[in-house]
Amino acid sequence: MSKLPQGDTGLYDPSMDRDSCGVGFIAELSAEPSRKTIVDAVEMLERMSHRGACGCDKNTGDGAGILVALPDAFLREVTKDAGFELPPQGEYAVGMFFMPHDDDRREKTKLVFHEIAESLGHVVLGWRRVPTDNSDLGKAALETEPTIEQVFVSKSMHSKADFEQQLYILRGLSIKSIREALCLEHGGPNDFYTCSLSSRTVVYKGQLKPTQLKGYFFADLGDQRFKSYMALVHSRFSTNTFPSWDRAQPMRVLGHNGEINTLRGNKNWMTAREGLLECKGLGLSRDEMSKLLPIVDVTSSDSGAFDNVLELLIRSGRSLPEAVMMMIPEAWHNDVNMDPEKKALYEYFSALMEPWDGPALVSFTDGRYLGATLDRNGLRPGRFYVTYSGRVIMASEVGVVDVPNDDVMRKGRLNPGMMLLVDFEKHCIVDDDALKKQYSGARPYGEWLERQKIQLADIIESVSETERIAPRIGMLPQKSENKEAFCIHGILAPLKAFGYTVE
């Protein structure tokens, strides 16, 4: 599935992996599945080919993909052909898996997945081999091409968690068990990957050029029955990392153009928090929760790490817009004009999670919401159209979808820290100011901060005058007649500066 160097090789350092890409989405405010959504989204992707990249082998791309709402009518027809039927929409989920080519390893993968699914109360309804056409793929892509299969599972009656939370647990536990069964080291080369496992969305992607996606998955994407009310596309340019099938985007909930400059710190903090993770919403004990660790897959790019953490936040109970606001906050700290309630929201969030900072356009969806946001400095482009016909179109640039001038209701660009959000349940676009006012007013963040925040000035005020004298650091202690003063400002000064106390 990939030929990534394992560890440092020459000037290559995997910790410095970054992506720069083309991102876009199309949304139907009516939430009615449409064939036109798929056709236009594929065309959008192809028109952003220049934002992707390919290697010396011109037919091997860095990656391309599309994330859509489950095409229920299409899936019902093709699963009948595969020999099984689906329950009502919302009562089943689809997993898109990159599988081993070797028959024995693939069957072992399926067996382990069945065992984990049944232990959690799910019924595996059936498997479907996704038809693909690799005739246009380059040598490098062919060498690592996986077998792609879909699995269909029912909702578990054993768990009180909602369906998407159940699937998050199923995916996490099955990945760990499959890796063990196939003797795949975490962080090492592997031939198994879960593109998506959801009751709302499905991801078609691969180590492809944008112009190859439709042809590779033509049996599905080219079928007139394949419809969706939304589509998120991504054309990958692996700036200083390597292309691979699993690193292609969209990820499970997002498409990302940019880079995360704080990645090492973000990963380290997530690792540090893992021992404290607990979620009543998932219904897992701390021991069971530990089986889902590590949260961040060390084989993933910066986009993959972001996706891992964002998914954890939304599966543990936060709404998607709130989780994105937590991870990509506005520049709030020194903004004297910002609403105090909104500033309190961001300050409270900063105590829970540090920002994932860097130039970025992030598009995200969980099936109910579809949106995009820019980093606090606005260092990646994002343009959008809203039409009278009820469509929202967003992309890294204009011109990727033809829109008649008389159909344009509104158009513009994303501003730094701005969020463009479509709510499919309410069939509307949520205004950025209204959205953030809604979340900042939902809880008394200002009161919580006032009650719990420790101010440095308050600490200083509680210290006696003699203790407040700044210690001398980096100098030899000066002799003094006053032995107490000599100890405080001389020999003990560096120790006091670093927080050492008498005991």
Automatic annotation (TrEMBL):
Pathway entry: Energy metabolism; nitrogen metabolism; Nitrogen metabolism; Amino-acid biosynthesis; L-glutamate biosynthesis via GLT pathway; L-glutamate from 2-oxoglutarate and L-glutamine (ferredoxin route): step 1/1
Record-listed E.C. numbers: 1.4.7.1
Family annotation (InterPro entries): ET-N_metabolism_enzyme, GATase_2_dom, Ntn_hydrolases_N
Residue ranges constituting the Glutamine amidotransferase type-2 domain according to the UniProt record: 21-425
Keyword Amino-acid biosynthesis: yes
Family per record: Belongs to the glutamate synthase family.
PANTHER family (UniProt xref): FAD NADPH DEHYDROGENASE/OXIDOREDUCTASE, GLUTAMATE SYNTHASE 2 [NADH], CHLOROPLASTIC
Name of the protein described by the UniProt record: glutamate synthase (ferredoxin)
Organism: Zea mays (Maize)
Native organism taxonomy: Eukaryota, Viridiplantae, Streptophyta, Embryophyta, Tracheophyta
